[in-house]
């Protein structure tokens, strides 16, 4: 299902979240500053320009289309992450800072947004746990499994491959870290 998105407003919100000036944004996407206003007022943008904007702002704007809100990530066990945050006595803002993302990006991830395995690994490191403890289907209270658990690593490899394919379909490099927020 394709949602009606006013993409210019979404781009403007991301620019504001990053604290970026409009002239800095213009330079990043290779347009003159007066054209930024047209982009921010637009309700549609050519795909190649949206890829460029997504890369410049570190945000996958394509995911705003097509999600009906019921699709949630099955990778991250949000309940476990929130419990660990509480147990460690840190805030979600502190965690977001440690991960190098904004609080709104973290909130979007908790709501089922795009999440890379690399970010799960960084999150686990920041919370002082093994990545497997943050993945659905595992328990944070279970005894740690040996590092050579081949089934888990095969699944992680498959997920990384799927992530790479999805990024290539979107026209993004497989290495670029696209955050949602």
Task: Give a verbal description of the structure.
It is globular, with a radius of gyration of 18 Å. By secondary structure, it is an all-alpha fold. About 9% of the residues have low confidence.
Annotate the secondary structure layout.
Elements: H1 7-18, H2 22-29, H3 33-41, H4 47-57, H5 78-88, H6 92-99, H7 103-110, H8 117-127, H9 150-169
Secondary structural class = mainly alpha
Number of helices: 9
Radius of gyration: 18 Å
Order of helices and strands: HHHHHHHHH
- List how many beta strands DSSP finds: 0
Helix content: 40-55%
The parts where pLDDT drops under 50 for at least 5 residues are 67-73, 138-147
Brief rundown of the structure:
The protein is mostly helical. The protein has nine helices and no strands.
For the structure shown, list the relevant keywords:
single chain, 181 residues, mainly alpha, 9 helices, 0% strand, globular
